[in-house]
Amino acid sequence: MFKSKPASAVDPATTDTLIGEGSVFEGNITSKASIRVEGTMQGDIHCDGDVVIGENGNAHSNISARHVVIAGEVHGEIQASGMLTITSKGRLEGNVSAANLVIEQGARFTGTSSMRETAEAPQAQPQAKSKASTESNAIHADA
Q1: Fewer CB atoms < 10 Å away: N or C end of the chain?
Q2: Residues 99-124: tens digit of each pLDDT
Q3: Are 40 and 55 in contact (CB under 8 A)?
Q4: pLDDT tens digits for 40-70?
Q5: Residue 4 domain-assigned (yes or no)
Q6: What is the rounded CA–CA span in Å between residue 76 and residue 57?
Q7: Helix (H, G, I), strand (E, B) or coil at 133
């Protein structure tokens, strides 16, 4: 009666999971496609695609994903194999490991960052060309 797609057919660029505003999700979540959080998330997120924490989103989570965008509030560790972006309204309290890090003016980041090259990192960008690992301690950026 119901036919499901094989797991290999999931496109990590598509968002198939939404935790909507007013919703609370407690527990760990794993997804091959992208995830968007507009409500409250309490638990770890492991995603092969991208994770977006919307302006009304609040996550007490360790997040592992390809790209992560924080426009709301996150308390936890972030591992992005690609880019982590903290928008002007975003708040992050936790440590970061990412190939590329963008912190917009007005964003708040409290924690440490570690940047590294990956196969996904754009080679044309100056920060991707650097072979040195950059680490900083107790960063508090009110850019």
Answers
A1: N
A2: 999 999 999 999 999 987 765 444 43
A3: no
A4: 999 999 999 999 999 999 999 999 999 999 9
A5: no
A6: 14
A7: coil
Q: Pick the closest to residue 85 from 121, 39, 53 (CA basis).
A: 53
Assigned domain for 114 exists: yes
Kindly give, in sequence order, each residue whose CB lies less than 8 Å from that of residue 107, ignoring residues fewer than 6 positions away: 70, 86, 87, 88, 89, 90, 91, 92, 141, 142, 143
DSSP character at residue 71: S
Strand pairing report for 24-26 and 45-47: unpaired
DSSP per residue over 40-58, as a string? EEES-EEESSEEEE-TT-E
User: In total, how many domains does the chain have?
Assistant: 1
- Domain around 71: 11-142
- CB neighbour burial string for 4-37, b if at least 16 within 10 angstroms, e if fewer: eeeeeeeebeebebebeeeeebeeebebebbbbb
Look up residue 93 and give its DSSP letter: E
What is the tens place of the pLDDT at every residue in 29-42? 999 989 999 999 99
How far is the C-alpha of 56 from the C-alpha of 54, rounded, in Å? 5
Residue 6 located in a structural domain: no
